[in-house]
Design brief:
Structural class: alpha/beta
Strand content: 25-35%
Largest sheet: 8 strands, mixed
Order of helices and strands: HHEEEHEHEEEEEEHH
Number of helices: 6
Shape: elongated
Distance between the termini: 28 Å
Number of strands: 10
Length: 218
């Protein structure tokens, strides 16, 4: 299967499918971005999938970290997903309606914020996918600033987001898929999908769930 075919196949699965695969492959945290949920669009069938552009935010008072020559939002690319890493514990937002407007113009698929955002109504009006840890009424000015783009950023413990990784978000949550694991994830998910179909069929026919799982999934 070509690389394009693998990516296309991957998009057929859900975050739950992919998380199960990454747990089986012993990837840190199963790739699950714990605590990050969907805020926009406001519909359960929405899905975000694409390659990552990472952004590292720092405290606005930090004088030692690098600075960017242009606004970090302008680094968006068509068909990609921006992942914004905000210092933990900040109560301000690092994403808002102006950024979504610019990102949508550039053709970005959506944003995942390891931190807070604001202007929820504006994102929903634009039908732009926004996943985040939480909300704020405060902007970033005076609180945080963008320092670097397209560098590895740490999510939690051994789970890092690398530029070029793939990220998927849906109503269940968000998962990051490293490029090195794409083939294995697709292989696992394809096999598991067939098993799931047989398991659902057994349950609909009246088989006790414990027996069905033991017979088909173990």
């Amino acid at each position: 299967m070509t690389s394009e075919g693998i990516v296309s196949a991957l998009n057929e699965f859900s975050t739950c499918d992919i998380g199960d695969a990454l747990v089986k492959l012993k990837y840190p945290n199963g790739g699950f971005l714990d605590g990050v949920t969907m805020y926009s669009p406001n519909r359960h069938d929405a899905k975000l999938f694409g390659q990552v552009i990472t952004v590292k935010m720092v405290d606005a008072a930090c004088k030692t970290s690098p600075s960017l020559p242009k606004h970090f939002c302008d680094y968006n690319e068509a068909g990609k997903v921006m992942f914004v890493s905000q210092p933990h514990g900040m109560y301000s937002a690092c994403w808002g309606g102006l950024m979504t407007t610019r990102s949508k113009y550039l053709g970005a698929k959506g944003v995942v914020v390891d931190g807070r955002f604001r202007d929820i109504g504006e994102h929903r009006d634009m039908d732009f996918p926004v996943f985040a840890r939480g909300q704020s009424i405060l902007g970033s000015n005076g609180f945080t600033r963008a320092s670097e783009v397209n560098i590895p950023v740490q999510f939690k413990d051994e789970l890092w987001i690398q530029p070029g990784d793939y990220i998927m978000g849906d109503a269940d949550g968000v998962v990051v898929i490293p490029v090195s694991h794409l083939d294995a994830v697709v292989e696992f998910c394809t096999a598991r999908k067939k098993i799931d179909e047989l398991t659902f069929e057994a349950l609909r026919s009246g088989e006790p769930i414990g027996e069905a799982i033991k017979r088909l999934r173990q």
